[in-house]
Specification:
Layout lengths: L6 H6 L9 E4 L4 E4 L6 E6 L2 E2 L7 E2 L9
Antiparallel strand pairs: 1-2, 2-3, 3-4, 3-5
The structure holds zinc ion (ZN).
């Protein structure tokens, strides 16, 4: 579902973990942190970004290489 966010709003949002900017992932309805070492993806619900670290998922491959 496409993310329908005000560009002005998006421009002031930063990752609460690392203070980096976001890029929008329309297919996943997520805001992805542009910091490669953070790379958290935050859900967007009803066009409202949920910028909570507890709600975010990691997009880097750290978990996959755990075994
Ligand atoms: Zn981040």
């Amino acid at each position: 579902m496409p993310v329908n966010l005000d560009p002005d709003l998006l421009s002031i949002l930063v990752c609460p973990k690392c203070r980096s900017e976001f890029r929008v992932d329309d297919e996943a309805s997520e805001l992805i942190c542009t910091n490669a070492t953070c790379a958290l993806a935050y859900p967007v619900r009803d066009d409202i970004p949920v910028l909570l670290i507890d709600e975010a998922r990691e997009t880097k491959d750290a978990e996959a290489s755990e075994n």
